[in-house]
């Protein structure tokens, strides 16, 4: 590969982590070039949080992240906190609001966050090249990156290419390929925060319910998520299902409490001598169509006075622990994140630098650190970008 234009730092990926890292490197007087094959910066930020970008969470702790090494993210999270994000947001006069559980969203639009990042990049003298595809990466004394816009060279190379989800928005496997090229281990990637697909039998019964949502609790192994559950044409979505998907392994049953906090057996017993049909009684606790489909599927709906105690107990138990065996998930096309990625054992938790390859850094979603729903993934992008930005 021929030598090219020299920079101090090349960052591949103009998303959340790449731009934050670029700003920090630029502030230190480093000559920074950000490359991205997309037409715009921050494509995922733009669609995040339904267009309002849930940019951080006041409750950020390592406990909200999934990784083979649950301790790895601690150091970066400690050095770039939700308060640091807010300082930036407030300096740029971006109106924000707290939704449930510490989730901070833009009041107007996620475009405000992208404008903030672009303005800070411009202030730090960062050069951004878009529509720039990477053909080859080589290493001599520094790193050489051959692109459709020429070859560039730098002593530090930061990989901020994100995960595999939403390929329509520019996601690619480049980050994983670079890790492999330099002999770094990868934790097998998989779609995360993604809707479940019903098995064929369940889909036939429940597809009619598409659009219905209710407050439920989903358990996947020891993890339990309370929140909204949404029936789709193909399966289950909504925050509770998306969260559970992070912990689900194919072939595993999920258990759904359709009536959390409610003593439905007590409600049955209170009407023990009534002639009311079970499906009609259930319709006062569940959306009517769900009550009907659930009764059709699971039980015979009889008047309560003709149903035995044993049957009522079994029905109540089923409502609190409806066992579903998904046939899979919707996959990368709609997954909010990619779990897995560059094995954290290969990286310094302080700087994100590859231990075996000085000068090579991995930040953001490409690393095996995946946040729960609620602003944790963008916060990891900021925090890991900040950590690398202090040294790259
Ligand atoms: C629909 C949706 C909603 C979301 N909402 C939220 C939310 O509200 N809050 C939250 O915390 N998280 C949210 N997330 C997750 C969050 O957006 C990501 O975790 C975060 O953007 C990851 O940042 P990153 O910098 O690692 O990668 P990205 O932001 O994905 O940036 C990667 C960049 O690398 C570029 N790139 C990739 N491959 C190449 C290549 N081969 N050559 C050149 N450039 C390349 C891409 O074009 C992209 O610009 C959401 C995700 C989705 C899909």
Characterization of this structure:
By secondary structure, the protein is an alpha+beta fold. It has two domains: 5-191 and 338-389, FAD/NAD(P)-binding domain (3-Layer(bba) Sandwich), CATH 3.50.50.60; 196-329, Beta Barrel (Elongation Factor Tu (Ef-tu), domain 3). 30% of the residues lie in helices and 25% in strands. It contains 13 helices and 21 strands. The chain has helices at 16-27, 43-47, 74-79, 82-91, 111-123, 174-181, 200-206, 239-245, 264-270, 278-282, 288-298, 309-320, 376-389, and strands at 5-12, 32-35, 54-57, 65-66, 96-98, 103-106, 127-129, 134-139, 143-147, 150-159, 186-192, 196-197, 213-220, 223-231, 235-237, 254-257, 322-324, 328-329, 337-342, 360-362, 370-371. Strands 1, 2, 7, 8, 9, 10 and 20 form a seven-stranded mixed beta sheet that branches. A seven-stranded antiparallel beta sheet has the order 17-16-13-14-15-12-18. The chain has a three-stranded antiparallel beta sheet with strand order 3-6-5. α1 (16-27) runs parallel beside α5 and α1 runs parallel beside α13. The chain is elongated. The model has no long low-confidence stretch (mean pLDDT 95). The structure holds flavin-adenine dinucleotide (FAD). Flavin-adenine dinucleotide (FAD) binds at residues 12-18, 35-38, 43-45, 47-49, 53-54, 133-134, 160-162, 165-166, 170-172, 174, 336-337, 364-365, 375-378, 381.
């Amino acid at each position: 590969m021929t030598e090219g234009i020299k920079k101090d730092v090349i960052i591949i990926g103009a998303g959340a982590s790449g731009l934050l890292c670029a700003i920090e490197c630029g502030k230190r007087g480093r000559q920074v070039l950000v490359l991205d094959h997309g037409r715009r910066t921050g494509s995922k930020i733009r669609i995040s949080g339904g267009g309002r970008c849930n940019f951080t969470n006041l409750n950020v702790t390592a406990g909200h992240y999934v990784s083979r090494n649950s301790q790895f993210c601690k150091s970066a999270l400690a050095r770039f906190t939700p308060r640091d994000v807010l300082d930036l947001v407030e300096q740029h006069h971006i109106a924000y609001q707290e939704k449930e559980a510490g989730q901070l969203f833009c009041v107007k639009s996620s475009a405000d966050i992208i404008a903030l990042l672009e303005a800070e990049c411009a202030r730090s003298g960062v050069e951004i090249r878009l529509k720039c595809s990477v053909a080859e990466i080589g290493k001599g004394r520094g790193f050489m990156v051959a692109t459709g816009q020429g070859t560039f060279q730098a002593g530090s190379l930061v990989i901020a290419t994100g995960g595999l989800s939403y390929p329509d928005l520019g996601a690619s496997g480049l980050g994983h390929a670079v890790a492999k090229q330099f002999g770094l281990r990868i934790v097998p990637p998989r779609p995360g925060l993604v809707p479940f697909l019903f098995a064929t039998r369940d889909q036939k019964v429940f597809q009619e319910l598409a659009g219905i949502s209710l407050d439920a609790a989903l358990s996947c192994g020891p993890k339990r998520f309370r929140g909204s559950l949404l029936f789709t044409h193909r399966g289950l979505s909504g925050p509770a299902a998306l969260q559970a998907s992070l912990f689900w392994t194919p072939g595993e049953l999920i258990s759904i409490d359709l009536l959390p906090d409610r003593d439905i057996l007590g409600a049955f017993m209170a009407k023990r001598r009534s002639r009311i049909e079970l499906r009609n009684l259930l319709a006062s606790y569940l959306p009517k169509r769900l009550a009907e489909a659930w009764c059709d599927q699971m039980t015979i709906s009889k008047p309560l006075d003709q149903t035995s105690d044993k049957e009522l107990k079994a029905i109540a138990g089923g409502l609190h622990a409806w066992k579903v065996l998904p046939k899979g998930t919707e996959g990368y096309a709609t997954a909010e994140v990619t779990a897995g990625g560059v094995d954290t054992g290969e990286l310094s938790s302080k700087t994100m630098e590859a231990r075996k390859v000085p000068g090579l850094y991995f930040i953001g979603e490409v690393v095996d650190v995946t946040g729960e729903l609620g602003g944790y993934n963008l916060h990891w992008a900021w925090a890991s970008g900040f950590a690398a930005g202090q040294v790259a």
